[in-house]
Write a structure and sequence with these properties.
Elements (H helix, E strand, L loop, with lengths): L5 E9 L1 H10 L10 H6 L9 H16 L4 E9 L7 E13 L2 E10 L2 E11 L7
Antiparallel strand pairs: 1-3, 2-5, 3-4, 4-5
Length: about 130
């Protein structure tokens, strides 16, 4: 793990089921995350993903790369363009800082209409034993 290391991109298909299931799992029952007509009445073309689902997907991206023993210490994200059903989000990452067994990774996620998420994740890897 070195500053400048690029993580391989991860493509995530944005399905209606993913959006609704993520909202339910995070107990976010706002109608814009499950009711297309309500979302349209509030100015959106369709339902859209909530921030807690995005946060979970960003965490998954990091642990998929660093492995199941990686510990997420901090996830700080900001949303931009919404994730709507039928789109694909592509997450990318780059190691920005390393201090012993801890790294800060800058993560971005883009979809068909723009940048959905930007942020940083602080992750700690367990110390390796003797070889």
């Amino acid at each position: 793990m070195r500053v400048g290391d690029e993580l391989p991109p991860l493509q995530i298909e944005i399905t209606r089921t993913l959006i609704v299931a993520g909202a339910i799992a995070s107990r976010d029952y706002q109608d814009v995350h499950h009711d297309p007509e309500s979302a349209r009445q509030k100015g959106s073309p369709d339902i859209f993903m909530n921030i807690l689902t995005t946060n979970g997907l960003v965490g998954r991206y990091i642990t998929d790369h660093f492995g199941p023993t990686a510990a997420l210490r901090k996830v700080a994200i900001r949303l931009g363009a919404p994730n709507h059903p039928g789109d694909t989000m592509v997450l990318t990452g780059r190691v920005e800082a390393v201090d012993a067994d801890t790294a800060v990774v800058r993560v971005t996620g883009d979809n068909g209409i723009g940048r959905h998420v930007t942020g940083t994740v602080t992750v700690t890897l367990p110390a390796r034993g003797p070889a």
